[in-house]
Each structure stands twice: as structure tokens, then as C-alpha cells.
Amino acid sequence: MKNFNLYIEQFDYTPIRELFRKKGQLRILKKREYFVRQNEVTQFVALIECGIFRYTCTSDDGNEHIMGYSFQGEFVCDYPSLILGSRTTVCIQAMTDCEVYWLPIHVLNQFWETNMDTQRMGRHAAEILFTEMYQRLLGFYCDTPEQRYIKLMRRCPDLKEKIPLKDIASFLGVTPETVSNIRRKLRYK
Question: Which residues form the Cyclic nucleotide-binding domain (predicted)?
């Protein structure tokens, strides 16, 4: 699968992955187990060796909304909570059995402070994450649901085999019926 999270394609994360494998703790999370729950303060970031995580938030009316995913070879954490030391606004849950290298944030921060190259690497990674989130926000304002679906499927054509339709719909900010209608319409084009 092409990378769901574009940040992973725009930078060589090899030194960071090596840090996780060398200093991180290998952990197994079972399907539906939480990496972090909403309103907790996260102190860890992880490298996903295998598995899929989903990011959800629950609105005041009790509805759960899919905010994103992390896949094999990517990192999993609630970035704002990690950098600000604030409570998380999302739950991060394993959608499959997952193997991750779990690393305390203070170890990653020590790595960033090693030298100018690692500081640049950390800044560049943060800039890429910001840009990706900004583009997604613009997509919600400027693209139709059909355009968002097409962009997602072009980027990750096999996503529909890994993620249930209702979760794809939630991620796109539409109903499952809307996604079904979009798929039907595209089939007949």
C-alpha cells in the first residue's frame, strides 16, 4: 500500500527508526487495545512494526469520529499531547494485533538534542506533519466528498480492504451511504 500518511514519504526516517529499534521496548497490543485514551497525557511514541492504529475523538453528543490512521513503518502518538504535555484529544486504538517499539518521549527529545543535524531532522519532521494536517483541513473546506474519496483511493487504493466502509466514511466526514453512492457513481463513469 502507498503511504496513507504522506509525511512518511517526504523524509528519510532511517536514523529515527534505528533509535526506536535500539532503545525502544517491543510491545504487543491486541486488537481493540488502546495506545492512549482521550484525556490522558501521553509520554510515549511508537514505531509500528506491524498492524494498524486508528485515531478517534468523541464529540459532546457521544458520536465517535475517525481522525486518522497509522500503519506499519509509521509512527503512532498524539503529537500535540506529546509536545505540549497536555491531555490527549483523541483515542488511539489498535485495529489489528500490533507490534510496536515503544519509546519514552524523553529519549526521543535527547536524540533531537544530539547535534544540529538531529535538531534539523526533528524540525523538518514537525514541519511535514503540520503541512499534511493543513492540507487535510483545506480539503474539508475546498473539496467535495467525492473529491476527498478519490484522492484517498488514489493514494491508498487497497485501503478499502483494510478499513471498514463506516470508518472510511467517518474519516471523510460523510455517512457510509454517501461513500456507497460515491463508489456506485464512480463505477459507472
Answer: 27-115
